[in-house]
């Protein structure tokens, strides 16, 4: 596949050392190598003025409920990737978007360096994807997202990619299409495919209609951020990164339109029916688990799921309350200003006005903190809730694979019994047919066993990788989040320290 | 639930009014209070050198209604018409923590034991805060009276402090005599009068304009400050839930995250204590301050109403005198009446001016003290937060 285009890297990092003896990558020379880790803090400013007015007349009859599609333009890279020495993981403090009312928001790029090896001088593999501004293109019925891929400028590292840095335009349905393809190729053999961001008919309709208010701006930012995280997770997966669909998605200027991803299309309905069928099947499969590891892991993921959902709910509540706090502080600030105006003692009047100003600044602080609460903490948890669902799905596939194997075994058994019976009759044709069938089934049983062993093996590797990723992910995001809290508190100190002399000046 | 408040605690909490209780001749405090179901019983403790009292030191139990009786009798006393009567303390209101307790009981099934206990702790703290507030506000009422040159000598005040029997008998009589309903009617009539009256004195004209405007503004600010404080408490409560779930996650986790989650859970627990204190400090220094002065301004407005009524009476008496002179009938009575009205009006104006001027001074001093204290506390808590957060970040990064 992609190996043909690749030169074996001069210094090969031996990945086997890392894991618990297991070979993460099926192919030998799978190590993409790069120079020093890059540490860009890309601020792609998003134009959140909202998508331009949509053309209300759809040529495409199928596209009744077309999602907003995002266009990624082929820009020449304007910004250089900053390089840093040392393979330290790139953790850049995220500046949460300021109040969404203002036209320009600082974007949230989440540069993550995929560190394969943690030792000094080790190779690291860096790909940074920034998803920025959605744009409405007149002829098409939807918005396009700008997608900018960057790797470190050495270029030779990821020879799987054609260029060092490039941009493409993609629609939301393209992202869904990508996920759909990856899921169908990899889920059933045990790979944990990151789930795509969710559709939202309500949110999207608002944006399409051209409603430019705070909630639709927030929706756009939320979606942009989710798409970025989705892509980053996908490319961090060493197997998925090499998938031709992924490469095509990241590189080619034009993509065939992914029609089957629409919610209410026939394909969509079919998917829903399949999902329901799967759910029923899952309930009826009772597997003899010979491997305690799987049983243990399944239980662990079950617990993790419950707790993460609970935590997610609490954090969502926190976001809500902090937004409320911001609103109430703003209201108080206005009221205090009026009170200050009404006060006839000059010094007290001034102090009250100053109080009003401080509280106004603080309300903005709370708003920013609420955004950090959301974009860092809440979204992380939401992503992992969905990821765990994918993990559980992979375990289910293993069960199905086992079931298939068992079914063919049972069928083989039956056929053998039937053949034995046929031995005593005088029907050579039927006997031969039975023998042929048995041979075929034996092959199937063997394949079934191989499949089962393969998926079990893959899942073990995947879970191990997933857990490592989870640890890194959580740790880095939590640190960023705590740093945002620190920033807020430090600002508070500044504001109140500025106010104190004013209060003391009252005579 | 009893609460023994120590001196330093009281000193901190008593912030809405300053310069009270320094006169050694009459020292009043509420060292103790009992909460029995809905009723709060305050222990009023007096230390005095005045001969008007039978003993130099004594304590009596009093209920909230007793305070209201005392306030009302003072308001109804003609002689005090020219004084700002300190506002009556509001009824102890445990509605908010009670509601919270109810919700907690309902949600018990969905929480872990630890979470439930923490919420309960938080609830108990809130109960205690309400309790402390109500004690403080009753105490200040008495201290305002004791530090007022004229009011401290009031006979009913002395009875309130000293009478070791139940006051409820006296209270009932008072109610029958004065009738709260009429008092309210009179008040609305006063508001009409005060807006229509032609003011002769610049000082009072200014005061009227100022007080009316300021009252509506401060009322609004009080409400908004209260909402703000409530939001802060909600954020602190969220931290409890987050901390508890992180704890469970840590217990279940077998990866390197285990210790990180544990530290994080710890951090949020500490953070929520700080947030809780930020909320309650804000409430005490800001919301309670605004609320107190809102009521005090109402008392000042009442003074203006009384003076306006006296002015109206005086103008009526003038008209009556003119009529009498025209008819040449009952002139001496009319003259006498007019003189009385004038005297009353002048007395009210003189004492009113004094009272309003000292009121402004009092208000400015109290605002200053509270705003400084609030700013200092905010800084202290924020610094505390930074230390906690930075400590956790360093721990996480070092692993």
Automatic annotation (TrEMBL), chain A:
Residues 431-458 form a coiled coil. PANTHER family: SORTING NEXIN, SORTING NEXIN-2. Residues 14-25, 56-73 have a biased composition (Acidic residues). PROSITE patterns: PX. Belongs to the sorting nexin family. It is a peripheral membrane protein. The gene is SNX2. Keywords: Acetylation, Cell projection, Coiled coil, Endosome, Membrane, Phosphoprotein, Protein transport, Transport. It is found in: Cell projection, Lamellipodium; Early endosome membrane. Gene3D superfamilies: Arfaptin homology (AH) domain/BAR domain, Phox-like domain. It comes from Myripristis murdjan (pinecone soldierfish). Residues 26-42, 87-99 have a biased composition (Low complexity). SUPFAM superfamilies: PX domain. One of its GO terms (cellular component) is cytosol. The keyword Repeat does not apply. Residues 1-99 are annotated as: Disordered. GO terms for biological process: early endosome to Golgi transport; protein transport. Residues 106-257 form the PX domain. InterPro entries: AH/BAR_dom_sf, PX_dom, PX_dom_sf, Vps5_C. It comes from the Eukaryota. The lineage of its organism: Eukaryota, Metazoa, Chordata, Craniata, Vertebrata. This is Sorting nexin-2. It holds the Pfam family PX. Signal peptide: none annotated. Involved in several stages of intracellular trafficking. Interacts with membranes containing phosphatidylinositol 3-phosphate (PtdIns(3P)) or phosphatidylinositol 3,5-bisphosphate (PtdIns(3,5)P2). Acts in part as component of the retromer membrane-deforming SNX-BAR subcomplex. The SNX-BAR retromer mediates retrograde transport of cargo proteins from endosomes to the trans-Golgi network (TGN) and is involved in endosome-to-plasma membrane transport for cargo protein recycling. GO terms for molecular function: phosphatidylinositol binding.
From TrEMBL, chain B:
GO terms for molecular function: dynactin binding; phosphatidylinositol binding. The keyword Coiled coil applies. Keywords: Coiled coil, Protein transport, Transport. The keyword Nucleus does not apply. PROSITE patterns: PX. It comes from the Eukaryota. Residues 106-133 form a coiled coil. One of its GO terms (biological process) is pinocytosis. Residues 1-167 form the PX domain. GO terms for cellular component: cytosol; endosome. InterPro entries: AH/BAR_dom_sf (IPR027267), PX_dom (IPR001683), PX_dom_sf (IPR036871), SNX5/SNX6/SNX32 (IPR014637), Vps5_C (IPR015404). Belongs to the sorting nexin family. Involved in several stages of intracellular trafficking. This is Sorting nexin. It comes from Myripristis murdjan.
């Amino acid at each position: 596949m992609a190996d043909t285009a690749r030169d074996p890297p001069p210094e090969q990092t031996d990945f086997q050392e890392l894991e618990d003896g297991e070979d993460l990558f099926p192919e030998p020379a799978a190590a993409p190598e790069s120079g020093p880790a890059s540490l860009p803090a890309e601020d792609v400013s998003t134009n959140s003025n909202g998508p331009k007015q949509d053309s209300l007349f759809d040529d495409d009859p199928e596209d009744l409920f077309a999602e907003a599609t995002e266009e990624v333009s082929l820009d020449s890279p304007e910004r250089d990737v900053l390089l840093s020495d040392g393979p330290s993981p790139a953790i850049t403090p995220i500046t949460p978007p300021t109040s969404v009312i203002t036209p320009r928001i600082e974007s949230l790029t989440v540069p993550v360096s995929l560190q394969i090896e943690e030792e000094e001088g080790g190779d690291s593999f860096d790909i940074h994807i920034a998803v920025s501004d959605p744009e409405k293109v007149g002829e098409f019925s939807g918005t396009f997202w700008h997608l900018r891929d960057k790797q470190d400028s050495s270029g030779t590292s990821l020879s799987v990619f054609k260029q060092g840095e490039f941009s493409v335009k993609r629609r939301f349905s393209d992202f869904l299409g990508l996920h759909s393809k990856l899921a169908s190729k990899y889920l059933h053999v045990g790979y944990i495919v990151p789930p795509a961001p969710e559709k939202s008919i309500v949110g999207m309709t608002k944006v399409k209609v051209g409603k430019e208010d705070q909630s639709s701006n927030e929706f756009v930012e939320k979606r942009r951020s989710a798409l970025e995280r989705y892509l980053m997770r996908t490319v961090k997966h060493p197997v998925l990164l090499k998938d031709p669909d992924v490469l095509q998605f990241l590189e080619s200027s034009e993509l065939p339109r992914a029609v089957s991803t629409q919610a209410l299309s026939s394909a969509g309905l079919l998917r829903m029916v399949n999902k329901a069928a799967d759910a029923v099947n899952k309930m009826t499969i009772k597997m003899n688990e010979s491997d305690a590891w799987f049983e243990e892991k399944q239980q662990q993921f079950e617990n993790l799921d419950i707790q993460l959902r609970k935590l997610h709910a609490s954090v969502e509540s926190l976001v809500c309350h902090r937004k409320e706090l911001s609103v109430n502080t703003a209201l108080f600030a206005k009221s205090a200003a009026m009170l200050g105006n009404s006060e006839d003692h000059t010094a007290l009047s001034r102090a009250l006005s100053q109080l009003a100003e401080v509280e106004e600044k603080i309300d903005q602080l709370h708003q920013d903190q609420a955004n950090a609460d959301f974009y860092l903490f809440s979204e992380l948890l939401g992503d992992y809730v969905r990821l765990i669902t994918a993990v559980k799905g992979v375990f289910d596939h293993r069960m199905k694979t086992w079931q298939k194997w068992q079914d063919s075994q049972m069928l083989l058994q039956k056929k053998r019994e039937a053949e034995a019976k046929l031995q005593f009759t005088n029907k050579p044709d039927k006997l031969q047919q039975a023998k042929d069938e048995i041979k075929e089934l034996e092959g199937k049983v063997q394949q079934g066993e191989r499949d089962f062993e393969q998926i079990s093996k893959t899942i073990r590797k995947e879970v191990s990788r997933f857990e490592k990723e989870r640890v890194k992910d959580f740790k880095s995001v939590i640190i960023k989040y705590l740093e945002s809290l620190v920033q807020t508190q430090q600002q508070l100190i500044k504001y109140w320290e500025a106010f104190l002399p004013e209060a003391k000046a009252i005579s | 639930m009893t609460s023994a408040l120590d001196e330093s605690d009281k000193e901190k909490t008593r912030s809405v009014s300053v310069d009270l209780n320094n006169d050694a001749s009459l020292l009043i405090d509420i060292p103790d209070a009992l909460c029995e179901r809905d009723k709060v019983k305050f222990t009023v403790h007096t230390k005095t050198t005045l001969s008007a009292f039978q003993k130099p030191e004594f304590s009596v139990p009093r209920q909230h209604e007793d305070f209201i009786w005392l306030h009302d009798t003072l308001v109804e006393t003609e002689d005090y018409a020219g004084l700002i009567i300190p506002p009556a303390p509001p009824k102890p209101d445990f509605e908010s923590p009670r509601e919270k307790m109810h919700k907690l009981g309902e949600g018990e099934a969905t929480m872990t034991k630890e979470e439930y206990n923490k919420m309960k702790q938080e609830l108990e703290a809130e109960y205690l805060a309400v309790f402390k507030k109500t004690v403080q506000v009753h105490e200040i009422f008495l201290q305002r009276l004791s530090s007022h040159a004229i009011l401290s000598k009031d006979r009913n005040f002395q009875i309130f402090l000293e009478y070791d029997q139940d006051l409820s008998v006296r209270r009932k009589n008072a109610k029958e005599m004065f009738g709260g309903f009429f008092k309210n009617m009179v008040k609305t009539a006063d508001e009409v009068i005060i807006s229509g009256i032609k003011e002769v004195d610049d000082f009072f004209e200014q005061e009227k304009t100022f007080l009316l405007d300021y009252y509506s503004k401060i009322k609004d600010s009080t409400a908004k400050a209260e909402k703000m404080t409530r939001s802060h408490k909600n954020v602190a409560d969220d931290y409890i839930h987050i901390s508890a779930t992180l704890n469970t996650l840590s217990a279940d986790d077998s990866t390197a995250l285990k210790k990180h989650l544990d530290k994080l859970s710890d951090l949020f627990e500490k953070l929520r204590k700080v947030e809780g204190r930020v909320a309650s400090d804000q409430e005490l220094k800001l919301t309670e301050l605004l609320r107190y002065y809102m009521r005090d301004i109402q008392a000042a407005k009442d003074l203006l109403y009384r003076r306006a009524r006296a002015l109206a009476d005086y103008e009526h008496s003038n008209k009556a005198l003119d009529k009498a002179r025209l008819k040449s009938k009952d002139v001496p009575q009319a003259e006498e009446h007019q003189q009385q009205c004038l005297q009353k009006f002048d007395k009210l104006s003189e004492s009113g001016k004094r009272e309003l001027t000292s009121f402004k001074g009092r208000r400015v001093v109290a605002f200053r003290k509270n705003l400084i204290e609030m700013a200092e506390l905010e800084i202290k808590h924020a610094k505390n937060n930074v230390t906690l957060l930075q400590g956790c970040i360093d721990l996480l990064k070092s692993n």
